[in-house]
Amino acid sequence: MASKPSTVDFIVEQAAAAGLSSRKMFGEYALFCQGKLVALVCDDQLFVKPTAEGRAYAEPVTEAPPYPSAKPCLVIDGDRWDDRNWLAGLFAISAANLLTPAPKKRRPK
């Protein structure tokens, strides 16, 4: 079951202070903060990439994979999405503690 665009729009709007953006990928959505992939929205559930700092900030939190064969992520319950400051803080903390992606290399033609 694919996520609804309205769900993703709500999360992005709630965390606007963190500079969150989304991109549709494989029928689901990826969320980016500071140019880093910080979360996925799959089946209308929010999965945040785990970092020690993010886990401590989000306690209590459970972990589960967003799709089969994926690494476990922090599952953020829908009732916590209403707190704009908390949600923006979680994304900002997670982004600050994730590695910056390597620039893509162009293939010669």
The share of residues in extended strands comes to 25-35%
Radius of gyration: 14 Å
Q: Output the structural class.
A: alpha+beta
**What's the arrangement of strands in the largest beta sheet?**
1-2-3-4-6-5
* Overall pLDDT: 92
Low-pLDDT residue spans: none
**Main β sheet profile:** 6 strands, antiparallel
Number of helices: 3
Walk me through what this model shows.
The protein has 109 residues and is of the alpha+beta class. 28% of the residues lie in helices and 27% in strands. The chain contains 3 helices and 6 strands. It has helices at residues 5-14, 52-58, 84-96, and strands spanning 21-25, 28-33, 36-42, 45-48, 62-64, 73-76. A hairpin with an 8-residue loop joins strand 5 and strand 6 (73-76).
